[in-house]
User: What shape does this take?
Amino acid sequence: MKAFPIIVSSPSGAGKTTIVDAVLKKNHTVARVVTATTRSPRKGEKNGKDYHFWTIKQFEQAIKKHQMLEWAQVHTHYYGIPKKSVDDLLKKGICPILVIDVQGARTVKAQYPQAATVFIVPPSLKELKKRILGRNDNTQDIEIRLETAKKEMKEIDRYDYALLNDDLQEAIAKMAGIVAAEQCRVARQDKKIKILK
Assistant: This one.
């Protein structure tokens, strides 16, 4: 099989990280892409496993050298995907999973047209608000996230798959199914499966 990126997006609180983490535990032909950030590690986070923790100078050098697949500055910190993180996995025959927002998804898809794209949909805005509240975010932040969610939902037609997360176990099973189906596409097969001896 020819490895390909898998892009997963959703509004904040829709469950994309939980779903992807569950799939990663069961399927060793996929791996999460380690992204880079200039923020400090949180308790328990490890450099090179959770994030590449870079200095601002390191991150800005990577931008100048066109080594970032996509990046953004959020408040006072940079976040982004080093192109090498994706390419290293592809060379090993492993499908990199990128959990990114809709803007980042457009950028990555333009550079990797063979990527499969999945949009995870919350059951409702009411349920999404409840999930965000469960994270103890402040009220102003919740309203901003809900407005952002409405805008992000308008991008759903750009994705290959829409996955409703109203039942977590079912959503995990469907995500695993999407990965398996995409890996079985004829266009993604190498010569040994296409040529009978």
User: Anything to note?
Assistant: The chain has one domain: 6-194.
